[in-house]
Amino acid sequence: xxxxxxxxxxxxxxxxxxxxxxxxxxxxxxxxxxxxxxxxxxxxxxxxxxxxxxxxxxxxxxxxxxxxxxxxxxxxxxxxxxxxxxxxxxxxxxxxxxxxxxxxxxxxxxxxxxxxxxxxxxxxxxxxxxxxxxxxxxxxxxxxxxxxxxxxxxxxxxxxxxxxxxxxxxxxxxxxxxxxxxxxxxxxxxxxxxxxxxxxxxxxxxxxxxxxxxxxxxxxxx
Length: 222
Description:
Layout: H1 9-22, E1 32-45, E2 64-77, E3 82-88, H2 93-107, E4 114-119, H3 127-132, H4 135-142, E5 145-150, H5 159-169, H6 179-195, H7 206-212
């Protein structure tokens, strides 16, 4: 369910900035990429699950062992029908900064600029790169990234969240006990969706927002 705030010019400006990105035509030199992260609790069985039978799903015991959590970073380029997920131990500022370096150097080395849509979390900052790399390296990376933040209470504007929901309904919903198994399941679904050229067919535009979300827009009397 969408959480819609009161009338707020800052909300409207950020929303329309993201929607403008989604209306751009495909340009490999300036790709529009969505970025998001989530966590997965690693859980080991204390008893062997009962196998599936006709008319019955696999049944798990209510007892289990916690084996910590892992973080998942997702890059998703809707117009290229492509995504990549990386599993990490943490989601610190340094982990975010390393993902930005991967984005620029490994994923889009030939791009002039990457338009990156993401939630406005406290780790998603330009300063995170200066905390991680030398000032020269941080500036080199940041020169190639144009951040587009979704407004507060509007993570539904980030298409990476929609893509994550697919993984949550499939490989991430099962009990997984260790990092190696988690990476294997995630990679398998990632390859499957990339091979099928699966994507998100985004339809909501700025014009739609000005009609359907008219109450959010400040009144203009000029």
